[in-house]
Write a structure and sequence with these properties.
Radius of gyration: 25 Å
Largest sheet: 3 strands, antiparallel
Number of strands: 3
Distance between the termini: 35 Å
Helix content: 55-70%
Shape: elongated
Order of helices and strands: HEEEHHHHHHHHHHHHHHH
């Protein structure tokens, strides 16, 4: 679990420092440094002070199209979100495959960290300044995909927590050692690392010594505790990542203030977040369980699978086939018959569609509005950037406590928090 929290510690910093604050400002500044003032589009935008107020707008030419300098940042972000969605859909099955999960996490972490670091050596005056757009796109796609791979470890960590294991032992003791919970060669593999195993293990054997009511109570207890542990691990990771992001924001405030918010200062902040991301990915590369096999036959490897299982997976598993299968599953799920059958699931997906990326989009738009319309100083924008994740830390720590105290389910907690945000 420590390694999973370390992964939050590195990637969430990129969100707080770059994705929601410095990256939108930097992209707008890149466009402004290479743009012209309306309506004549002759005078460079850099010819006037960034603090000057007035109706003049700055546009930049991308190919044969003129784009507002503030809109340039939003267009880049929109493209990155679209590519992120395509990537996440394609990699879903791969992330559920333990031998490839770690490799996927590290690959996308580097895909995000390296472009962010390259901002250090790409000035806005360069003839290749437009490369800032694909660098930002790759960084955002890398972040989103690495989070998916990282969250794939959550069910494993939750199922192996002491609280959940204690309830499993209670079920085993109450059923007098019946093997429907334990892992035996005669039963399908339901280890926590098996991608086909259910999150909640089900009873597959008829028992006569266990009262049905007691078994039902234990299952509800197991389900509730598993939900709470998952929520606790996730929220603690978010709080840790937000804390690291605030720390780096405060550090970045020093050069940004000393350099008076120049483009180099913005690039420096983004580059530092990329370096931070890459450096703190090293513990995940060392300690996270991967697909390495064990020693002899039947030995258990790092990923919780035996070497024989690894060999079996290697013979049947194929990346291209998994990607195609992921899109086929999506197509089958979007059939009208499935939508009617899984009505509540699609209601949840529709709600998530409206909420996803809302935080980042609103924050980025607010930052751009503060810079271009309110003419806020970079130090003031950083203060806004600090207040936002601080509220996130308080919420991520407070809500799980309230959930445990009042016995709320994850669904009820989500509903309450959403109503609190948008009454």
């Amino acid at each position: 679990m420590f390694t999973r929290l370390t992964s939050c510690f590195d990637s969430e910093v990129f969100v707080i420092v770059s994705l929601t604050l410095f990256l939108p400002i930097c992209l707008e500044q890149f466009a402004r440094d290479n743009g012209y003032l309306l309506p004549d589009r002759i005078e460079p935008c850099s010819a006037i002070s960034t603090l000057q107020t007035g109706p003049a707008r700055c546009v930049v030419r991308i190919g044969w199209v003129w784009i507002d300098s503030a809109s340039f940042s939003l267009y880049v972000y929109s493209i990155s979100v679209a590519l992120q969605a395509l990537t996440v859909i394609s990699m879903g099955g791969i992330a559920d495959h333990p031998p490839h999960r770690k490799r996927l996490l590290l690959s996308f972490a580097l895909l995000g960290a390296i472009p962010a670091t390259i901002f250090l050596i790409l000035p806005s005056t360069s003839p290749f300044w437009i490369l800032a757009a694909p660098l930002a796109i790759f960084a955002n796609v890398g972040f989103g995909a690495s989070v998916v791979a990282m969250n794939a470890y959550l069910p494993t960590l939750a199922k192996e927590s002491p609280e959940v294991q204690r309830i499993l032992f209670e079920i085993e003791d109450s059923s007098q050692g019946v093997a429907h919970i334990s892992h035996t060669p005669t039963l399908p593999d339901e280890s926590s690392e098996n991608p086909d195993s259910p999150l909640i293990r089900q009873d597959t054997t008829t028992t006569t010594s266990l009262n049905e009511h007691e078994l039902h109570t234990l299952r509800i207890k197991y389900d509730t505790e598993l939900s709470r542990v998952t929520s606790r691990i996730s929220s603690f990771g978010i709080a840790l990542g937000y804390g690291a992001g605030i720390f780096l924001l405060i550090i970045a405030l020093i050069p940004v203030t000393l350099l008076h918010g120049t483009t180099f200062a913005l690039r420096l902040a983004i580059g530092i977040s990329g370096i931070w991301w890459a450096v703190f990915t090293i513990p995940a590369a060392i300690w996270l369980p991967g697909g390495g096999g064990g020693g002899g036959d039947g030995s258990v490897g790092e990923g919780g699978l035996s070497s024989a299982d690894d060999a079996s997976f290697s013979g049947q598993w194929n990346t291209k086939r998994e990607i195609i299968a992921a899109w086929k599953r999506l197509g089958n799920m979007l059939r009208w018959s499935e939508i009617k059958r899984l009505r509540n699931t699609f209601k949840y997906l529709a709600a998530w569609f409206l909420l996803s990326d809302g935080f980042t989009t609103i924050t980025s738009t607010a930052i751009l509005f503060g810079k271009t319309t309110l003419n806020m100083q970079p130090s003031a924008l950083i203060l806004v950037g600090v207040l936002t994740p601080t509220s996130g830390i308080l919420g991520s720590l407070a809500w799980p406590h309230l959930q445990r105290r009042y016995g709320w389910s994850n669904l009820k907690t989500d509903a309450i928090t959403n109503y609190a945000i948008d009454p």
